[in-house]
Amino acid sequence: MKRFVLSSLLAAALISTAAAEPKDPHAGHNHPPGQHGAHEHEQEQAERTKPWPKEVISLAESLAIQERGRVKPLKTFAGFQLLKMNGKRKVKTPQGETLQPTAWLLDCWFFPAQAKTYEMFRVQDGDALTRIGLQAKKKRDYYSYDQLEPGLSQLSELAQAYRRKDSKELEPIEREILGLFTNVVEFSRLIRFLDFARQRHPLHGSTGLTKVYPAEPRPGVSQALHGMPGLRVLVTGLGENKSIPEERKQEEVDAAMRLLATLQQTTAVAAETALFPPNQSTSETKEWLSPFEVVRNRIGAAFGTQILRMTDRFPVTPDPMDKQLTALTHLEAMEHNKTSPEVFLRELKGLHGTLKGLAETRNEYAKIPLEVHYYKADWFYRSLLVYLLGFLCLAIGWLIPKPPEGAEEGAAAKWLYRIVLGSLVLATVLCTVGIVERCIIRSRPPVSTLYETILFITSTGVITALAIEWINRQRVAVVVATVIGVLGMFLAGKYEFKEAVTAGDTMTSLVAVLDTNFWLATHVTTVTLGYAAGLLASGIAHVWLIGQLMGYRAGDRSFYRSLSRMVYGVICFGLLFSVIGTILGGIWANYSWGRFWGWDP
Predict the structure, then answer these.
(1) Is the C-alpha dihedral spanning 517, 518, 523, 525 positive or negative?
(2) By the 8 A CB rule, do 201 and 219 touch?
(3) Which of 465, 470, 458, 495 has its CA nearest to residue 383?
(4) What are phi and psi of 599, to 5 degrees?
(5) Which string of DSSP letters, residue by residue, matches 28-65?
(6) What is the DSSP letter of 282?
(7) pLDDT value at position 39?
(8) What interhelical angle do 74-86 and 476-502 show, nearest 10?
(9) Rg (CA), the chain
(10) N or C, where is the chain less crowded by C-beta within 10 Å?
């Protein structure tokens, strides 16, 4: 909740600042005038000339990050960010290089000027661009941040106006503009995440600060934080030293306070990116820390929390944050050495090792490698491809002329049937493996979200159809299974995108009242099995109806009686699980809310 509050305050600034001065390379940066030197500008404008090394990608994608209360790999975070903005988990650069999510996110962080040139914002209606004063390339197309930048001011104004309307009253074009605005804000936050690492902090001519930071006249964030104990000694000593004039003391204290304020200001834009596990156990705190919070805690440990009251919406633990500061130092060094692959990799290893150690201490890293593997394997996309192969073979089989009555079926038809069966089995195995991995990652039954429910219904429906086919060999269940498999996986893909937009993930944390594995495993799973059976019975019944209308196997009453028996058996199967699931749901509702109809998650 605390990050959401800050996000709301920053959202308009992220867009309006960039839109107000689009040609100014310093626009949108949290620094007083004159603080942005040539080095910082060079760092921001640098471009990557070679692909990211495999070892860099491997380490980066297995970094852990907390978003909306869930600890996940950086690969997952990047994948859903890109899916939400682009509609797919890859983007092509102007040079023709295809970037996967982690490589794209690294470009956003370390090479923001280059990332702005990627055409990755999907616009479904070109009229949205016309309303913000831009020329659409065509009805549906992709645009880069640089291409959208001249219209950002108008985009922000329209979005603010539309947000005041009731969501039910919004027209499709207004929803499109709101979605584009949200995506641009999210992208702006990503490319500005490491702004703090590019900043250098002037000492304002302070003699005392020069003694605290003798090696660097303009220290970076990590250098400034390492000097906090010395800065405290300086400020405390000023109050005790009677030989220094009061005016001079005040100047030194003002310079120190300006430094502390600037440190918080430059890291505020990174307040949503919780990369740093805290030192406390999970029973003491669930929240991870952003660079902004590491800075505040380090300042609080040196000077006390009273100095931070003006921003007390972020609770402060007076903790030196030594390990977190080590990780922050590695992150800052990565930014300054991003054009030196060997040094960058060394610092990334240091960052990965430090953060992994902190997460393991809290028992929050164990499932990160498994989730990385889950998204690499892409089980459901592979399952869809195999289901499509089965459907294609099935369609080819329909084109083969039927043998004369009483004649044996041809070899081609037999082989196609075997391929269809094999495809169904393989695709369902792939889907089931993906579901099992999700269960292990989440420590949940397989139906805790609508996305998972679609996957579960698809796999159980196909398995039931295959069981029917094994019993009666009529080849009707194979047809229905193939259609269910293809449509189910396509629908799951659509819902994955929907949940990426609305929730940012498909493994979101459950609301408290639904956070119970027992009832999810009993009531929800049982009822969902009933849904799957109902869907399968409907499919077989449609085969009966379509066959009758088209005169398929006219006069073959045994064939249609067989279909009727299938429908009857599947309905009985579904009715059994639906009744049991409904009764269990009533017990759950009575247990949780006091009466069946009183539940309100």
Answers:
(1) positive
(2) yes
(3) 458
(4) -75, 145
(5) T--S-TT---HHHHHHHH----SPPPHHHHHHHHT-EE
(6) T
(7) 57
(8) 90
(9) 30
(10) N
Helix (H) / strand (E) element for 141: namely strand 141-143
The interaxial angle of helices 476-502 and 450-472, nearest 10 deg, is 170
Please state the rounded mean pLDDT for residues 398-402: 82
Name every residue whose Cβ is closer than 8 Å to that of residue 516 and which is 6 or more positions away in sequence: none
* pLDDT tier at 513, thresholds 50, 70, 90: low
Which helix (H) or strand (E) is 71 found in, with range? strand 70-73
CA atoms 168, 171, 177, 183: torsion sign = positive
pLDDT for the residue 426: 98
Sequence letter at residue 123: V
Listed in sequence order, the DSSP H helices in 268-340 are 291-303, 322-336
DSSP assignment of 71-87 equals EEEHHHHHHHHHHHHHS
Q: What is the DSSP letter of 515?
A: -
Instruction: State the residue for tokens 């229905």.
Output: 480
434, with CB counted inside 10 A (0-12, 13-18, 19+), is buried
Nearest to 303 by CA among 218, 239, 223: 239
3-state secondary structure 334-391: HHHCCCCHHHHHHHHHHHHHHHHHHHHHCCCCCCHHHHHHHHHHCHHHHHHHHHHHHH
Which two tokens mark 575? 């009715």
CA distances from 129 to 117, 141, 143, 228 (A): 17, 11, 10, 49
Q: What is the pLDDT of residues 82-107, one digit of tens each?
A: 999 999 999 999 999 999 999 999 99
pLDDT at 82: 97
Tell me how long the chain is.
Answer: 601
Confidence at 7, pLDDT banded by 50, 70, 90: very low
Q: Confirm if 371 and 76 have CB atoms less than 8 A apart.
A: yes
Pairing of strands 70-73, 64-67: antiparallel
Q: What share of the chain is helix, strand, coil (3-state, %, to 5)?
A: 70, 5, 30
User: d(Cα 571, Cα 577) in Å, to the nearest integer?
Assistant: 10
For residue 307 the two structure tokens come to 């100095």
Distances in Å between the Cα of 551 and the Cα atoms of 399, 405, 543, 547 are 17, 17, 12, 6
Residue 224 and residue 43: Cα distance in Å, rounded?
Answer: 19
Distance of CA 346 to the CA centre of its chain: 27
Cβ of 580: how many Cβ atoms within 10 Å? 16
What tokens were used for 439?
Answer: 């269960």
And the tokens for 566?
A: 């299938």
What is the structure's pLDDT at 488?
A: 96
pLDDT in tens, 112-163: 999 999 999 999 999 999 999 999 998 999 999 999 999 999 999 999 999 9
- 3-state DSSP call for residue 247? helix
Q: Which amino acid is at 57?
A: I
Token representation of residue 510: 């459950």
pLDDT of residue 10: 32
pTM: 0.87
